[in-house]
Amino acid sequence: MAEQGTHKPLVASSNLALGTHNPPKCGGFIFSTVFVKPLAESFPLQCGTSQIYPSALTTRPMRRIYFMQIQIDKLIRSKRRTMALIVEHDGTLTVRAPMRVPNAEIDAFVREKAAWIIRTRQKMKSVIETTPKQYADGEKFLFLGSSFDLKLVRPQRPSLKFDNGFRLSINAQKRGEPVFTRWYKERAFEIITERVAEYSKQYGFSPKQVKITSARTRWGSCSPNGTLNFTWRLVMAPLEVIDYVVVHELAHLRVKNHSRKFWRVVESILPEYNLQRKWLREHGGRLTL
Ligand SMILES: [Zn+2]
């Protein structure tokens, strides 16, 4: 597995030309947003996963930012061939790098992407700031891609029920988050298990088991022993998006990395998977309480 570095460089940038790439955002896998440095012929390799995808590169006007400091919160070195930047929900910056890349080169890469890091942090912040749930009457909650109203009702069991809308016991309002989380986890297990079984039967995959996680930055992953993990947050997304993540992880049972061969397996099952990937990159940040 990945070796974690202790090196925490402070990167100061003075007059650098910035922002020549349009980085891919990964709902990171919600979503962490990821920027992968395009090296050689490579598609970024990462096991299990979320959201690290090859980027479409576009040219943008050059900008200069002065006196900026960006701290690397976590540096993970592993046997990968590319460098990747991951901005987590809370704004922390993780850098993944090949074993032997010098620190100076990592610092330079971060410096070069400073504008993107700042922009991404601002986006994350706005996502977080716009969705603090109060568990109040009339509030909207997502399920399978649609938004449903919450209605507070007299005490009932279970305290949260769904019938084309959410009904929460008034006396459970203060425990809204754990109550909703539990409900989403149960639905996630039912729905995702069913989708995994369906695709496995149809395309001959043999996953060991399905586990539901609370991951924030990974929609799914595939363990070496064949266990598929999915975050409960996925059931907030449309079914086609869930199917894409399911097929993505199933495909890892055949191809561990994100090589062209891997994407061909995904495409052979879901020819339009790119639409779902795009959806996750754009909306994955909303899949939270
Ligand atoms: Zn993957």
Description:
By secondary structure, this protein is of the alpha+beta class. Helix content is 31%, strand content 24%. It contains six helices and 16 strands. It has helices spanning 103-112, 114-130, 176-203, 239-251, 260-269, 273-283; strands at 3-5, 10-13, 16-18, 33-36, 63-65, 68-71, 74-78, 84-87, 93-98, 140-143, 146-153, 160-162, 166-169, 209-213, 220-222, 227-231. The strands form five sheets. Strands 1-7-9-8-4 form a five-stranded mixed β-sheet, covered by helices on one side. The protein has a four-stranded mixed β-sheet with strand order 10-11-13-12, with helices on one face. A three-stranded mixed β-sheet has the order 14-16-15, with helices on one face. A hairpin with a 3-residue loop joins strand 12 (160-162) and strand 13. The longest helix is centred in the middle third of the chain and has 28 residues, at 176-203. The radius of gyration is 20 Å and the shape is globular. Bound molecules: zinc ion (ZN). Zinc ion binds at residues 49, 248, 252, 258.
Helix-strand blueprint:
Elements: E1 3-5, E2 10-13, E3 16-18, E4 33-36, E5 63-65, E6 68-71, E7 74-78, E8 84-87, E9 93-98, H1 103-112, H2 114-130, E10 140-143, E11 146-153, E12 160-162, E13 166-169, H3 176-203, E14 209-213, E15 220-222, E16 227-231, H4 239-251, H5 260-269, H6 273-283
Parallel strand pairs: 7-9, 11-13, 14-16
Antiparallel strand pairs: 1-7, 2-6, 3-5, 4-8, 8-9, 10-11, 12-13, 15-16
Helix pairs in contact: 3-4, 4-5
Bound molecules: zinc ion.
